[in-house]
Amino acid sequence: MLPEHLHRLNAARDSRRAAVIVTDLDAASSTLFLEGENIEETAAPAVESALRTGKSGMAEIGGRPVFINVYLPPPRIVVIGAVHISQALAGMAAIAGFDLTIIDPRSAFATPERFGQTRLLAEWPEDALKGMPLDAYTALAAVSHDPKIDDFPLKAALDAACFYVGALGSRRTHASRVERLTKLGLDESAIARIHAPIGLDIRAASPAEIAVAILADIIQALRTRDVTATPRGADNRGPAR
């Protein structure tokens, strides 16, 4: 690996930004792309597909054989609310390969007895999120059903461009939420990114079924996200060869 590539990969890892190295097998040369950089037209389909799937492997670009190495930040889920849905979601998320943290200031709910080894923060989200900033590889699911707990992290997730932002509640509940978030300074396009009611519409009824719907929605959002947008605060210097 070229020293410049190693340097940029380490920087990308520290900032939780995805990267791809494309090696031309005939020319024995390589190019590094960071997510959000401009990608030459012939390489774009293969590189963007790799960024979405996270899978390394052989491909063909411009009629030439290449090997694509993909380096994705570990995706994570932040759940607001230590409720029954969260209990089911915690186990499912681990199986699907997501790091998961549950935040709930109600210490009677956020207990190891209810959640085992799941990371729990019995704090207000305003305080908890200071130590774990949200980013483009974070999904936020607000399921406490309490505006005092849910509204701040929802705004924080939208401001941080999280790849998924979802909130529990009916359409009527969400209409009230929209009014509150508008007063907090969010515009219509930002609020429209919230998946509400949360999860895929599979007619889920039980907490476990709702958790399945939420996780499926998160996975779909991760695998179909816009990989052409430059992450906030990222240094976009173009591909390194």
From TrEMBL:
Residues 77-218 form the XdhC Rossmann domain. Pfam families: XdhC_C. It comes from the Bacteria. InterPro entries: MoCofactor_Util/Proc (IPR052698), XdhC_Rossmann_dom (IPR027051). This is XdhC/CoxF family protein. It comes from Pararhizobium polonicum.
